[in-house]
Amino acid sequence: MNQLFEFLLRQRNLLLFILLQVISLWSVFTYNNYQHTLYFNTTNAWAASILSTRQEVASYHQLRDINGELALENQKLHQQIFQLQAQVQQKADIPVFFSKAALDRYKPIACKVIDQSTRNSQNYLTIEKGSQDGIKPGMAVISSTGVVGKVISCQENLSLIVSVLHTSNTISAKIKSSGELGYIKWPGYQPEVAELMDVSKYKKVVKGDTIVTSDYNAVYPPNVPIGIVAKVGLQDDGTFHDIKVMLLTHFSTLRYVYVIENKFAGQQAKLEQAKPKID
Amino acid sequence: MGANFQYKWVLGVVLSIVVQLLFLRDLALFYYGFCFIYLWAIIKAPIETPPVYLIIGGFALGWLLDTFYNTHGMHAFATVLVAWLRPTFFKILTPANGYDERSAISLAEMKWLWFFPYVALMLFTHHIVLFLLESSTGSLLGLSLLKAFLSTLLGLGVFALLELFNSSK
């Protein structure tokens, strides 16, 4: 027994080292399960307050750019209002096929970004609204120009978002003009460029095509812009196009985002989970 | 020298962490060069610091960084590793006339032939482990190596500058 204690005492550095490494690795791998919520991230209250102050100072110097973006967005929204008004007037005497609930299925919640990274292989954002404001894990996040990511965990007043710039966060997407389906994946470097996968080489893809979210998407509303095709090539295996997409969201200067509440998300998940057997 | 040096070291640790968290978070040179100046605390810790404190300190430091970087244990793992390996590096790099109790880790005292290999070993070990953990898939091996290599170069430059500023006082 005495010898054992002596051994432990002699090897205390090694044992401590191994213990702490195991704790660290455990933390890495449980968190990378990616649905796990742990308290130790930027939604931690004091880390968030420091980052929030820092961001306030930084965003003061970007007010001009933010103003410009807002003006552009307003312009876009006005345009949409006009288009919709015109449609409503045209269709006034045709029976309506949408339920009233379907018309306001998606509800945007505007949020301030207090922290983000773009330079790592797995990037996250922290926003200043949480479960108290109706935000839940699994909701889509978009910016005024394109998709941003998906909420993965919420505190009362803060939420953590897994960005599109995360190698295991893929988005079901389609080419706007032709409707070709595929998915968007970020290769792990260059925060401006992602890849569109799974588009057969026999389909026509042209440089400059717009990529939007597909209709078969449990997270994002359909037709949210993602990016523009910048380069079309052939993948090594020779069956799919190798398509590089310039992302429309400028992640490094992102200051405000919209979390999209999908009022049907719960119903859809329930339906798809409990698929009745047909026989 | 003794007490004065400790005081300077503590001040340096606090400063390096603040600079790391508030200014260097989004900085990347040509996408690939990252600067992890918080390692100052481990690299410049007095030679006679007991390894136990170094390992525990490294863990706390890494965990703090993880909280701010959303990396969950990766910085902690890498930092504990270099804290544990530090005595081994000392053994590998013994200067010609050995260490004496007054020697401190600085460019002026240890000369560049000892100082730069030491800092490079510490930085590269930390960076390669960190970037490999972070990429989490084998497909990014080349990218991680490149990142680690460039970040080590950048780190060497930064540490050299800090030393030059320090010695002129």
From TrEMBL, chain A:
User: Keyword Secreted: yes or no?
Assistant: no
The protein's UniProt keywords, in alphabetical order, are: Cell shape
Residue span, Rod shape-determining protein MreC beta-barrel core domain: 113-261
Task: Kindly give the InterPro entries that the UniProt entry links to this protein.
Answer: Cell/Rod_1, Cell/Rod_MreC_2, MreC, MreC_beta-barrel_core
- Show the PANTHER family listed in the entry: CELL SHAPE-DETERMINING PROTEIN MREC
Q: Which family does it belong to?
A: Belongs to the MreC family.
- The protein's name is Cell shape-determining protein MreC
Q: Which organism is it from?
A: Aquirufa novilacunae
Taxon lineage: Bacteria, Pseudomonadati, Bacteroidota, Cytophagia, Cytophagales
Automatic annotation (TrEMBL), chain B:
Keywords, A to Z? Answer: Membrane, Transmembrane, Transmembrane helix
Task: Please give the organism.
Answer: Aquirufa novilacunae
Q: Does the keyword Transmembrane apply?
A: yes
Out of the domains of life, which is the source?
A: Bacteria
Q: What is this protein called?
A: Rod shape-determining protein MreD
**Which chain regions cross the lipid bilayer?**
29-47, 53-69, 76-93, 113-133, 140-162
